[in-house]
Design a protein that fits this description.
globular, 325 residues, ABC transporter involved in vitamin B12 uptake, BtuC, mainly alpha
Length: 325
């Protein structure tokens, strides 16, 4: 299985390299200056969300509320920056992660204690949280001039010429890689997703696993809420609406199985990069703006379908079939 996953990741990396080469040949300025920064920022935001979604999918669950948590966190913290403009970026980061984690725990509680299927529970909280944004904001937007400079400085800033969003995503990538590859809690997530009954018999707590993955998913979304609002210098009720499809698609493209127990942090990160490259390259290819969304959707569907076909490969025959010697 490890060899298959490594092959998948290598193939995906090769495909991404081919796309980058093709787009660069057609539009040489695609990887220059601000364009490269836009690609890295797009990947950064999506990669953080994907890292959070990864654990949920590994446990055979799904979190449809991430985009709503993102929008709620961004709106709340943008309003907070109006009231307390002296707050530093670190405080916003901590608050964003904490808010998201609490909302993730709400999802876990509905799933574990109330017994609601993950897709129903997170669909419900997605709608409720999106509605709460309207209540919080009154339907109004918060624009750049209404936010404090400290609020916008870090998400929109850069170090060594590389956007801060990329560095944050890199740190998140390393932390999630360490969790799922070198910590007992990460191994429990894989074990539970592979066979929940066997995992419970082995003493792995469903409660701990579910609360871990959904709180991490919420925390990632909450953090992205601050980064999104600060990066684009705007907070509004429809922020990231519909982004759930791209998040889950990035995971599946990266080899994460929705049936649980299979997938890697590296694969999920590459899946996010694939989506980011496709989304940022279309304007440079002069695709009609009205067709860009359709093209992105078609590319994602094709990639997901190709991934599904690879999962249908027959397993190795161990015993001879009846009638065979």
């Amino acid at each position: 299985m490890r060899r298959i996953l490594q092959e998948r990741e290598a193939i995906l990396a090769f495909v991404i390299a081919l796309i980058l080469l093709g787009v660069t040949l057609r539009a040489p300025d695609y990887l220059d200056g601000s364009s490269l920064g836009n690609l890295l920022s797009t990947w950064g935001l999506l990669a953080i969300l994907v890292m959070g979604q990864l654990g949920v999918l590994l446990t055979r669950g799904i979190d449809l509320s991430q985009a709503s948590v993102l929008a709620f966190s961004g709106m709340f913290l943008a309003q907070l920056s109006q009231v307390m403009p002296e707050l530093p970026a670190l405080v916003f980061v901590i608050l964003a992660i904490g808010m998201g984690a609490v909302l993730g725990i709400l999802n876990a509680s509905l799933i574990t204690f109330a017994g609601i299927p993950p897709i129903i529970a997170t669909l419900g909280t997605m709608t409720i949280i999106r509605g709460m944004i309207y209540v919080l904001s009154g339907g109004a937007w918060i624009s750049s001039h209404e936010m404090s400079e400290a609020f916008k400085a870090f998400p929109a800033g850069a170090n060594l010429g590389i956007p801060n969003l990329f560095w944050v995503a890199t740190v998140a990538f390393i932390l999630f890689w360490l969790l799922y590859n070198h910590r007992p809690a990460g191994r429990d997530v894989y074990a539970y997703g592979s066979n929940p009954d066997a995992a419970r018999n082995a003493g792995i707590s469903r409660l701990k696993v579910e609360f871990l993955v959904y709180s991490l998913s919420g925390a990632a979304a909450g953090l992205c809420g601050y980064l999104w609002a600060g990066r684009f210098a705007i907070a509004y009720t429809q922020a990231a609406e519909g982004r759930e499809f791209a998040i889950i698609a990035a995971c599946v493209i990266g080899g994460v199985s929705i049936t649980g127990g299979r997938g890697t942090v590296l694969g999920a990160g590459l899946g996010a990069l694939f989506i980011a490259v496709v989304e940022t390259s279309l304007p440079f290819l002069r695709i009609n703006p009205f067709l860009q969304l359709a093209v992105i959707g078609a590319v994602i569907l094709i990639a997901v379908a190709a991934n599904a076909l690879t999962e249908r490969r027959p397993g190795r025959q161990i015993l001879p079939r009846e009638g065979q010697s």
